[in-house]
Each structure stands twice: as C-alpha cells, then as structure tokens.
Amino acid sequence: DSVLIGPLQIGAYQDQQQLLETIVDQQGFVFAGSAIAINPEKIMTARQDSSVASMLQQAEIRYADGIGVVAVMRQRLKRPIQRIPGCELWQALMLRCAEFKVPVYLVGAKPEVLAQTKAKLQQQHVHVVGATDGYFGDEQQVIESIKQSGAQVISVAMGSPKQEQFIDRCKQQLPACFFMGVGGSYDVFTG
Ligand code: UDP
C-alpha cells in the first residue's frame, strides 16, 4: 500500500511499529533492501532533479518522515498514518535487532561518536558485529569487512547523498542485507 507524491511512491505505514515489523518480521527475518526517509524537501528536490529522484527510487522502502508528507497521505487514504522520524526508527530498529539477535554493522560519523554509539548499543544488548567511521578511504575494504562480519542490518550515518550512494553500491554486493541511511542519528543518540 503506497501513495504517489511527485515522482515518489511512499509506503503507507500506519505507524513505526508496522514499518519495524516489515524490516525485521515476527520470526526475526530481515527485509532485503534499503529504507529512506522522505520529507517535503526531498519531494521538491526530486521533482526538479531526476538524478535525485532516481537516487530516492533505489530504496525498496520509502517512509514518511515529515508532517507535510503525512498530511497528503492521510488525505488520499482517509485513514490514520503517523509520521515516522528516521532517528527514532533507527533506535527502535536497533532494539528490535537486539530482541531477535540480528547482527548489526555500524558505518559513519566521527571515530569518537561511532565508538560511543557502539558502546551504548552494546549496553542495550545490540549485537554489534563491526563498525567503521564515516571518513574511510577504501570503500571496497569497508564492504569486505561488512561481508566478513556476517551483519544482516547495516546503518549508515554519513549524511545525504553520501550515505545513499554508499548504500547503493553496498547493496549490490550484499543483496540479502537491510540498509538504512540515518544522517546525524549517531550524534543525536550520543549527544
Ligand atoms: N559524516 C560522515 N562522513 C562524511 C560526512 C559526514 O560520516 O564524509 C557524518 C557526520 O560525522 C555526522 C553525519 O554524517 O555524524 C551527518 O552529517 P551531516 O550533519 O553533515 O549530514 P546531514 O544530517 O545534514 O545530512
């Protein structure tokens, strides 16, 4: 179930929990692909720039992270749709991964922020199998490290469009994993 706004099809998730259960289901199976938050600004840019539109269309899941987007969806579907803030979704996803013992790999942010993020997640019993800060040189080396870690969920905090571009290249080599671009979420989480 989804709504087309401009060039983007946005998933009509009733709330965060419904989206979480799509990403890691009741048996602990992980959705293969990536998720991206959509706000009105991204829709406007996608309307004007087809390269931005196609970047956003690479994600298998687009969810509404913006009250303007949610308002349009509610009006079209005539049923309750809640806004899903990306940072909150990410934190809830980490806890769901802990619950189902899903291995997680963290990419992005400055080394000290990343180290704090990892430590805090481990305190919450998240199984963090690897981490690479967002200022690496050799991308392929990072992808190999993710492969070897056995991670199933990979969160990438490098800001847009860097994280989306990285995710698209990763996905080709790790087609069974789930990827989420999380912007400045590690900074918020540890701040
Ligand atoms: N970041 C990174 N590598 C980069 C640029 C940024 O890991 O090459 C990290 C940065 O440390 C921060 C996050 O990406 O944790 C979000 O950065 P920024 O605020 O610039 O992006 P925005 O959230 O505005 O898209």
Automatic annotation (TrEMBL):
Keyword Transferase: yes
Keywords, alphabetical: Glycosyltransferase, Transferase
The name this protein goes by in its record: WecB/TagA/CpsF family glycosyltransferase
